Amino acid sequence: MQIVIIGSGNVAYHLAKAFVLSNIPLAQIFGRNEKDLEKIGSELHIPYSTERLEDADVYLICVSDNSVEDISKIITKKNVLVAHTSGSLPKEILAGEYRKASFYPLQTFSKSKDLNYEKIPFFIETENEEDRKLLFELASKVSKNVMESNHEKRRYIHLTAVFACNFVNHLFSKAKEISDSQEIPFDYFLPLIDETVQKIHEIEPKLAQTGPAVRNDIRVLELHEQLLKDESLEIYKTINHSIKKMYEL
User: Fold this and answer.
1) How many CA atoms lie within 13 A of 228 on its CB side?
2) Is the pLDDT of residue 249 over 80?
């Protein structure tokens, strides 16, 4: 089976690396950014190109959501399987006459960060049973967590991921802004962050909640509000309001 990955960003890199480590041969990695492709190709020993798309049985499109539809048009063959890796798009966004699917890995990807691919959940959606088996077999060589998920369910998976990952990381960034403004090393907060994340492996997040909002400590809440302004103040108020509402304070 010939497989081509389209893209040169974080998802494309890690998917290619996961395949290589799982002894899944790749015919090519294809994209627009020659510099990034060269780095990936050299590291993982994969043929790459910005010009000629190789013939394959399976094409995995690993690009931004805004680019998926346009990129899918460059695949003109009909008797092939094409899957995107988006958590929010339907498989029908793919514009060709080929067989369509989604192949969504639920993880945050950065090229500089090593990952344990076995733990990454993959969510599969296809048009027929044969393609379902094919993608399940492919994903199962990489991960121990492979599931089916239609677009409706996958939209909520992606939304949950945004709350659990993207929003949380943004709050880490805002926290670092505050610590930097007072010349407090952000490293001091890493044990707290680690414990917060580790705790929800054992305790339901709602039961693990601590802090002045869950205690309805008005004095501390008002003191914090005096230290903040503009966007950070609005974020602080909004999140504390949500916490109070969850605990009906």
Assistant:
1) 19
2) no
Cα 87 to Cα 103: distance, rounded to the nearest angstrom: 9
Same domain, 26 and 114: yes
Give the domain extent around 181: 155-246
Secondary structure element (H or E) that encloses residue 233, with its range: helix 230-246
Q: 91, 127 in Cβ contact below 8 A?
A: yes
B/e letters for 144-172, b = 16+ CB within 10 Å, e = fewer, are eebeebebeebeebbeebeeeeeeeeeee
Q: Looking at 149, 183, 204, which one is the last position of a domain? A: 149
The CATH code of the domain that includes 22 is 3.40.50.720
Q: Are 19 and 3 in contact (CB under 8 A)?
A: yes
**For the chain, how many structural domains are there in total?**
2
**Band (248; pLDDT cuts 50, 70, 90):** confident
Which parts of 22-56 fold into alpha helices (H)? 34-44
Judging by beta carbons within 10 Å of its beta carbon (0-12, 13-18, 19+), is residue 48 exposed, middle or buried?
buried
Of 149, 178, 198, which marks where a domain is finished?
A: 149
Contact 140/146 with Cβ under 8 angstroms? yes
- pTM listed for this prediction: 0.91
Helical residues (DSSP H) of 48-189, grouped into ranges: 65-72, 129-140, 151-161, 168-181
- The tens digit of pLDDT for each residue in 70-102 reads 999 999 999 999 999 999 999 999 999 999 999
CATH number, domain of 174, equals: 1.10.1040.20
Same-domain pairing of 109 and 225: no
State whether 159 and 142 are in the same domain.
Answer: no
